[in-house]
Structures are given as structure tokens and as C-alpha cells.
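Worked Example 4.2. Read the sequence first, then its C-alpha cells.
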Amino acid sequence: MEIALQVVHALLALGLIVAVLFQPGGEAGLPGAITGGAQSLFGKKKGLEEKLAKLTSIVAILFMVSTVVLAFIVGR
């Protein structure tokens, strides 16, 4: 069971890396900070960006859960 969980954990880590790398880059500097804040305030994310953000959040949560479970199992 521990090996299966380690494999799942490794796959989640790779999935999280890929999901983060596919995120569109934001603008740098003060203009990027202002427009980024306005976009998050008014919900300007559309289509693929929104789905990718949700996917990244889900994979990150699953990765954290698997980390805690794996730490608990290995610590026994």
C-alpha cells in the first residue's frame, strides 16, 4: 500500500508541476499588479484559464492530502 501511495504522490507532483507551468504568465511591475488586482476583483478569467486554475487547485489539494497521509503511514 505504501508503494502505491508513493506512486500516486509522484504522479500528483508531476501533475502539479505541469499544471503550474501551463498557467499563463502575468505582467511584471506595477501595471501588472494593478490589472491583476482588477481582473481578480471583476472576474476577468475566461475559458481555459479558469479551468486550468481550478485544475491546479484540485491537484494541489490532492497533493497536500497525499503528503499528509504518506507522512502518517511512513511515520508508523
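Now turn to a second chain, presented in exactly the same format:
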Amino acid sequence: MAASNLFKPLTNMVPAPFRNRYFLILAIFFAVMVFVDKHDMITQFRLQRTVNKLEQDKRFYEQKIEEAEIDRASFEGNKESFAREHYRMKRADEDVFIIEEKE
């Protein structure tokens, strides 16, 4: 009983809805779910950031694959032209000029 009297002034300072045992249990439950649980919010944010990064990498590599397929098609069409344009290969007695059109 004496211990109850010590905490009585402290509990009276807390608003009535926060002294409700159902509210306290619910608050503890949410705190455990948000901060302590295996699938807490911090972990979810990290996983979502990783997923976003992987999706960005996927788009980048899909673009690179498309460029490589275009280069492969160009290579299959004219191997000599491809070597001259991309690797600046030339015969000993000639000069190569590459004219690129602006898009």
C-alpha cells in the first residue's frame, strides 16, 4: 500500500486515457511491432531501399543489353564497318573519317 501511495502523484500527472490498461497494452504491442519484431519498420525500410536499388540496376542493365544487341546487329551486318567505327581500325595507306549525325 505504501508503494502505491508513492506513485499516486506520478500517475495523477498522466492524462486519464494514457492510464487505461488497454491503451497501455496496445502501445506496448505497437512498440514491439515497430522496433523489436523480426519484420520491424527499420528492416522494412532497408529492404525497400534495396529493392529500389536492384530495380534501378535492372533498368540500367536492360538498357545496356539493348545497346549490345544493336551493336551485335550492326556487327553482323558489316564487320569491316563496325571495326572501323568502333575500334578506329584502318589500312596502312588510308585515313578514316567518322561523321556522326546529331539527334
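Notes for the reader: The helical segments are 2-13, 16-19, 21-36, 41-77, 79-87. DSSP finds five helices and no strands in the chain.
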